[in-house]
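Let us work through a complete example step by step.
Step 1: write down the sequence.
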Amino acid sequence: MEALNRTLFLWINATPDTPDWLISLATLVARDLITIVPVLIVALWLWGPENQVGSQRRLVLKTAIALAWALTVSWLIGNLYPHPRPFVVGLGHQFLAHDATESYPSNHGTIIFTFAIAFFCWHRVWSGIVLLAVGLAIAWSRIFLGVHWPMDMLGGLLLGGLSCLIAQIAWHFCGQRLLSNISSLYRLLFAFPIRKGWVRE
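Step 2: predict the structure and record it as tokens.
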């Protein structure tokens, strides 16, 4: 498996002969495209058609549960079974500055794939497919720039699927109570913008 991991990495990883524009594009994707996650979470909670805000907020909370679980497990795996990044072992070429932290699974991959699977399962199939494409672009870019292995991204994808399953099970036990409590807190803290109509109640 490690041999396959290295072979795939070297096949995807950029080289000094790679055009500068492609390196710049990959850097933009690797660093900035992940911001779609907090932007969508905030937008779905605060705005939307009145008859859809409730389902949007359920989606936000279920996704948050999945993300919390995924990142916790990712941290545990990274600390219990540390795996060095490609540039740490001197393989390939690095084009993106990064600390020599544990490589597996990728936090970027874990976050975006958890998000994509959550939308696929709990929102719309097409939105999940779009976010999955975004996830694949982020995964490619971070391997291309030399800061992750392909298996790091596969680990993020598998962890995302497992975390969404855990979140769905957890929702049956405490979801509605959690939604009610957080909604009450939201109405208290955002009373002024709600009254002004800037955000949904």
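Step 3: interpret the result. The helical segments are 2-12, 20-32, 36-46, 53-80, 107-122, 125-144, 150-189, 191-196.
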